[in-house]
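Fold it.
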Amino acid sequence: MFFKHIYDTSLAQGSYLIGCQAKGEAIVIDAKRDVDTYLEIAKENNLTITHITETHIHADFLSGSHELAEITGAQLYLSDEGGADWQYEFPHESLKHGDKIKVGNLTLEVIHTPGHTPESISFLLTDHPATDEPVMIFTGDFVFVGDIGRPDLLEKAAGITGTQEKGAHEMYRSVQDFSKLPPHIQVWPGHGAGSACGKALGSVPSSTVGYEKIRNWAFQFESDKEGFVQYLLEGQPEPPKYFAMMKKLNKVERLLLTEVPKHPKLSETEFLQKYNEGIKVIDTRNKVEFAKGFIPGSINIQNNKTLSTWAGWLLNYDEDFVIVAPEEEMDEITRKLMRIGLDRIAGFISEVNLSGIKLEQADVINIEEFKTYLGKEEVQIVDVRGKTEYEDGHIEGAENVFVGTLPQNLDKISKDKQVIIHCQSGDRSAIAYSLLKKYGFNHVKNYSGGMKEWREKGNPVTS
């Protein structure tokens, strides 16, 4: 058997290419959208991708299964569980609980594991003829290392009311069924630490059924369903705004992108024309470089592992935008953005010193200066972290306005007072600073050290 775990650190998302070397056939599970990765792996290992499948209709990334099927001609196998409202709306082979997919000498048995979503399925893999016992299970967003999938996304992100409580109870039953599997079976989930699809995902890529029964919190509520439901639903992070769009696009027929686009480098004249017409500018440089000099109105979303997430919060799917980035980073940036369907890149520039544009500088302050503003009536302290982080401990007097929804909550920020923003360690406050400057807030300072430095230096917090 050939096995390859493909992990996208930008979305903490795992996909899999599993092959039967004897027959030269392979299956891909939960493909990301830049599918050239799978084509290269298959070619290097003399495999043909003959089967493609998914564990559920994804909310956190735009699946590449459809693109991969278009390129390879492989058969697409998708869940037919969950009822009429949870069906894929494009041609595929339907899967039900107990069905089996045969890939050469490999067998993948379908197990319906609802909870995260009604249609969620897992795949129990047996490697014939070496054994007739299953050796792996691919759980998607059902069981993670140390956690389980959240059941509230349909309600919080997609606006489908009444689904989180029902999903939590379904998840309880699915967990009880999962615990009956042999303890030696390897568990390969769809996400790792950093994903918004759970609240306590582990950073190691895989586990076993036995290990999860011992260490995963979800298996410690065997006779306490209501305690399980309550713990599962509380303290979940804010689901990014783009999740609703992913849920829609992964279910329906859509425009396919079978190659990674190459975007043009704009001349100074081309950029200035777009800029003066009001196009959105996303500056992906490091926050320190951005602070030294940035194009007025540009938004600082650094090209790190959270680029996709914050772009998904702050960009609209019906608008063009320009990227500020070194040319050598554009392929990486394009891939990160296309994985959540943000395809409308109108070009990029690598230099911000342009004729006719006076650069602005960010007002970044240290902890000593920050302390001089505390407790003053004419100062507003704004903590732009998530609600759960804020409730776990914040600086006394700080108000919580989450950076992801800041554009919708500008009325909570004073234009008359001196505004001091901070987050955990400076990345999110850099985004928030650029947003506030873009929307006309002129009295803003960024305490970049944030809660990390505040706590490390022994300063008090309240909750």
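The first strand starts at residue 2 and ends at 8.
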